[in-house]
Specification:
Elements (H helix, E strand, L loop, with lengths): L4 H40 L1 H5 L14 H11 L6 E4 L14 E4 L8 H10 L5 E5 L10 E3 L6 E5 H7 L5
Parallel strand pairs: 1-2, 2-3
Antiparallel strand pairs: 3-5, 4-5
Length: 167
């Protein structure tokens, strides 16, 4: 004998109600997790992309404490103004008034154009500290640390002596 439609629907509804409780919890957990990840991304990563030209958009790579300490060691006892390249929106101003420069740029952004600008505009007593990605065309004066925390120092006076005049 076959069950009528009411009995079948009652059994289906009972089965679905047990499954829905677990599905609802799982859906709530996944939805909350998704919202949390998006929230963190929106707060910490997205603002860095807002004003940067599309061709220069790179991921946020924070400096470690060890890397900052290495930079400070290489800047010890130095006087003069400091500019940090890699913390802005990609625009470069005149660098002639700075004696100390820190550079934390992705390898694709450290170009010969930037090297030429630094060499041509910085005074002879200037020092450039490069984090994580060294200038490949310049000989480093000294370095501090190792691995991802390594930083390199380039003294402009040494660079100008060792490399030919910029074109």
């Amino acid at each position: 004998m076959e069950d009528n439609v009411d009995v079948i629907m009652e059994n289906v509804t009972t089965l679905l109600s047990f499954r829905d409780k677990h599905a609802t919890r799982l859906g709530g957990i996944l939805g909350g997790l998704t919202a949390s990840v998006y929230g963190l991304w929106a707060v910490f990563v997205f603002p860095g992309f807002c004003k940067v030209p599309w061709r220069l958009r790179v991921p946020f790579l924070p400096s470690s404490k060890a890397q900052v300490q290495n930079v400070m060691k290489l800047l010890e006892d130095r006087k003069g103004r400091l500019v940090d390249l890699g913390s802005g929106d990609g625009r470069l101003a005149d660098l002639s008034g700075f004696s100390n420069v820190t550079v934390f740029l992705a390898p694709g952004l450290v170009t010969r154009i930037l090297e030429k600008k630094l060499k041509d505009e910085l005074p002879d007593d200037a020092r450039i500290i490069v984090c994580r990605f060294p200038f490949t065309h310049w000989p480093a004066t000294c370095s501090e640390g190792s691995g991802l925390d390594q930083v390199w120092a380039y003294d402009i006076q040494t660079i100008k002596k060792q490399l030919p005049k910029s074109k």
